[in-house]
Amino acid sequence: MSTAFTPSTNKSPVGVAVIGAGNISKQYLDNLTVFPDLKVHVIADLFEDAAEARAKEYGIAEWGSPELALNHPDVEIIVNLTIPAAHVEVATAAVNAGKHVWTEKPFSLDRESGLGLLKAADAAGIRLGTAPDTFLGAGLQTARRIIERGDIGTPLSALTMFQTPGPESWHPNPAFLFQQGAGPLFDMGPYYLTALVQTFGSVRTVAAVGSSARAARVIGSGPKAGETFAVEVPTHVSAMARFEGGASSHSIFSFESAREQTGIVEITGSEATLSLPDPNEFDGDLKLWRPGSEEPQVIPATGPSNGRGLGVLDMARSIRGGVPHRATGDLAFHVLDTMVSITESVETGSFVDVTSNAPVSAAVPEDWAPESATL
């Protein structure tokens, strides 16, 4: 994004509206409503009853349709928590309304719509931010400090693993997680790939294989328990990536394992191996393994670990300060481009080059305090 940033003369809290009152909105609102540099004005949803219930739960004065949020004069950032298939449509509407946008992952479902959104925002001077913002949390930021000061030597390779039996056993409405734009790669891949890109830089080439063990799955809980739904995407993906500096990674994304193993990210360097906290979380101890050691050195994470919404707060403070925010649309598009390339490799059985680039995000200071008022 080429937009030049200038400090704002407005030093009041930044106005926010949330579009999408589903499950994930609670995790965001737990934080957005207590950060003093933010003011949530509106909860919006196509189902206005859901918006009303969520607004009343958090003491938010206004609720209604997405148009109410898009046209609200006090709203500067739209927090887009809609389903993946609607992410670009809602974000584009926000850009056209002159609002900055924070979007849940994935950034888009294809390169073309993602690039169109980037260009539209750039032309309008609008900021795009996208989940995950977990990499701004204490866990992964502590890992960054460890790696950058040379504690593991030169980073060489990485192993990541996310494998579960699948969310249909516990999610009351899981079908969308097995449709285009989801599956284990698009649903969970952004957390792991963002952590890798922030460590090694941009991905340059990928190779992958994928499979689906079953053509249909059965909902295991909630009012739809017993209903069957179709599986549209690979439910197991094994991917290799080569990064711009020559480092490599091997990642598993799976909804097919009876043995649940998630949150595994290990970075191997020339001097030691670092085990990172779960990239889907904001905190967690790190473990440093040196050659010959029987036990790892346990390193507590330091810094903010409030949870989802840190990226929205970083964007808001950056708007007022006239500086770049950290979880940018360009970073999210590169992760999306990488996932699309992995999908193409699964389909073609060949290596696929990744041509987009991820920006280097500024480190988060250890004393960065979301609970403090800075505006």
Can you walk me through this structure?
The chain has 375 residues and is α/β, with parallel strands linked by helices. It has 2 domains: 14-134 and 308-327, Rossmann fold (3-Layer(aba) Sandwich); 138-299, Dihydrodipicolinate Reductase, domain 2, CATH 3.30.360. It has 9 helices and 17 strands. A 9-stranded mixed sheet has the order 16-15-14-13-7-12-11-8-17. A 6-stranded parallel sheet has the order 3-2-1-4-5-6, with helices on both faces. Strand 15 and strand 16 form a beta hairpin. The longest helix has 20 residues, at 329-348.
Question: Nutshell version of this structure?
Answer:
With 375 residues, this protein is an alpha/beta fold. It is built from nine helices and 17 strands.
Distance linking N and C termini = 25 Å
CATH superfamily of the largest domain: Dihydrodipicolinate Reductase, domain 2
CATH-defined topology of the largest domain: Dihydrodipicolinate Reductase, domain 2
Helicity range: 25-40%
Specify the structural class.
Answer: alpha/beta
Low-confidence stretches: none
Strand order of the largest sheet: 16-15-14-13-7-12-11-8-17
Biggest β-sheet: count, sense, barrel? Answer: 9 strands, mixed
